[in-house]
Design a protein that fits this description.
Blueprint (H helix, E strand, L loop, with lengths): L2 E5 L4 H16 L3 E6 L4 H6 L3 E4 L4 H4 L12 H22 L6 E4 L4 H11 L3 E3 L22 H19 L1 H11 L6 H10 L4 E3 L16 E3 L15 H8 L5 E3 L9 H14 L4 E4 L16 E4 L4 H4 L5 E4 L3 H10 L3 E3 L6 H11 L16 H14 L1 H15 L3 H12 L2
Parallel strand pairs: 1-2, 1-4, 2-3, 4-5, 6-7, 8-9, 8-11, 9-10, 11-12
Helix pairs in contact: 1-16, 4-7, 5-7, 10-14, 12-15
Length: about 425
Amino acid sequence: MTKILITAAGSYGDVAPYTGLGARLRDAGHEVALATHDTYAPLVQAAGLEFRRLPADPRTRRPGQARPAAPGSKRALMRQAAAFVKELGGGIADAAHEDTGLLLLSATTAPLGHHLAEALDIPSLDLPLVPGAPTGDFAPVVSGGRSLGRWGNRAAGRLSLRIIDRLYADATRDLRSRLGLPPATPRTVRRRTEAAGRPVLHGFSEVLVPRPADWRTGLDVVGNWWPWHAPDAQLPHIVEDFLAAGPPPVFLGFGSMAGGDGERLSTLAAAALRRAEVRGILQSGWAGLTTRHTPEHADLLTIGDVPHALLFPRMSAVVHHCGAGTTAAGLRAGVPTVPVPVTADQPFWAARLASLGAATAPVPFADLSADNAVARLADAVTQAVTSPARRDHATEAARRLAAEDGAGEVIKAIARLGV
């Protein structure tokens, strides 16, 4: 038995997959703690894992950051992100106990966790949910999803890593000092890690992102880790009653995006769904979607947190922001998607779904402010629910996803470490 500490920081989609992975590791005989923000303590504990606190909770501390960045605000966002990372660094150091035998690190926590592993002299595994290593196959996932050509993609990927190094510079200096380690820059530690050929297991599917052939040995794509939910979990009665009252509805939600924009988005969503002549389920999320502002909303239902694994298979289509986890959940359910990407890696996943044939062309979130937003969203929904080809592509993708066992691959990798 190994005492494993998983560290994950960010929004729900950045954390929830590690609850399912942690539960599988626990079932395999390991003792597992998950360090994350207070917001997700109930989620961690429900999965039977020990909760350990990380500071800088994005939900309670800076909910306004869920809004898309305003033009010209990149420098301010970098300062905010650096402050977030610096606060996180102190929490990472506190989360590990003396008997911790292995660190499992998300993309956000890995640049900090490597120093902790060095100080404790224990192994670690990087378990990112998105591709981060430079490749000629595609540009960095945060660059908007457009290819720059093979040379340009690789160059942009290297630049992206240097930007991340800058972002973690202050936190690295403080953390290494606190841990009694000699000074070293994030770039030095990253290059040292890369040179050692340490394994990195990516928690997404090759159905969406085939492993780039120009990645070094040890960078593997193993399949998704799914958020934990109780084996006997069921949809709330109000949801079941709504589903039974008519044809399969369309799901619409923006996850941790668009905080505070609920009234406008709710009105727009209701109008688009009504124009498409479909029933709808709005997931409130950080935007606060609700039917309160929508007249004649008998064909609409607002819900809170409900496992996508239970809800999505009952939908005729799903409309969402295309976070990595929600993207995978829609594909796993075998239903077509209308991608409405907001920021960060979301345009990348939206483009992947569309290229797979399981989604309509993306409707960028920024375009929902245009005069034709209702008509455009309604048209995309109509395409999603009426196209047999899109449903066939989604069904085939779901079949392939069902054959993967991402958590099982992590268990095998841990066994190879011999801890």
